[in-house]
Specification:
Elements lengths: L6 E5 L3 H18 L3 E5 L4 H7 L6 E5 L2 H17 L3 E4 L7 H13 L3 E6 L12 H5 L4 E3 L5 H11 L19 H4 L8 E5 L11 H14 L4 E4 L6 H7 L8 E3 L6 H10 L2 E5 L2 H8 L4 E4 L15 E4 L16 E4 L2 E4 H4 L3 H14 L1
Parallel strand pairs: 1-2, 1-4, 2-3, 4-5, 5-6, 7-8, 7-10, 8-9, 10-11, 11-12
Antiparallel strand pairs: 13-14
Length: 358
Amino acid sequence: MAIFRKFVVFSAGPVGDHLVLIDIANHFFETTAIPTAMITKHPSGFLSDLTAPYTDHIEEIRFSGIVGYLKTIALVLQSIFVKNCYVLVFPIPLPRYMKFFVYFIRFCSRSRVVGYNLEGSKSFPVGHGYAQLLGSGNTIPMQAETFAVSSERMLKFLGFTPMPHIPTLAFVEKSEVFHKLGLDQVDDYVAMHITPSHILRTLPPDRWAEIMKELVVRLPETMFVFTGSKNDIPFIESSLSGVDPSRFLIAAGKTDARELMTLYKHARVNITVQTGNALMVAMLHLPQVVVNIKGTAMFYYDFNERATILYSTKDCICDPFETQCNMVHYKGEEYMACVFNIDNMDIIKAVENKCRDH
């Protein structure tokens, strides 16, 4: 078995990708006792808060500023003489500088670069996968499976016997968030995250407005708290058109990572679309209704035993590896058919049933 000094992974910055890497680093450490260096291309306090509980075995290298660049260079130079293992978790087309970096590690160091080979997709035509870049002896086939299963296969490929593992996320609560948001006296609320990074993975605002009008009637004692970034506020406001303003609170842009997870933890139910926040809720194993896309198997949420996952197969041609499907054109925007064709009442009933259970 090849013993490495450390594993090295790369985070481009989106919350979902960062959470996947945290969990893979945890799984690798549980199995091998080998720590991970995580190079974060677009660092932020939010991402650092997610990593913070694991600093005993995850070193976050912020690829920003002189200190971050020097730490990255030092890691690369160390890899010439010490055997590290660089793991390319996400099969995405690499920019030129990353290809140069991979070739340098592969041919000019004692370290190894491994990854998942994907061919025959939109981004990777046959004959243009990672096997050509890393060498066939350094890749395993990408399969339609969750990241937890992919992590297990990679450990086996590297010669380890994987420990049993279910994705989880640790954090320290910040209960002051309830006073900060004026929720001190609110005992019953539903948290909602309906804004993905691309609008095609959610429902149109007028559909959300219809759903909300029905939910406030069916759940008369419940407050609805909307999370997201500041940039999400216009979409959220459009999605609440005609809804009694006393029944909702827009918390978008007002919380850090620990405050956000505290909100999710104490919600009666969390309603999400396919996005990093959905993965956060799933890794916390909280009551959840996911208005989901059918594709992108890596980010599926069925490891959360408390999740109800909704999608439509009508007109759906989802790719299990990439976010693409038949598109529905509606009021100047495009939406994935597997989301757009979910019936409003299916969402309403799923939320109502989940609230009844919790």
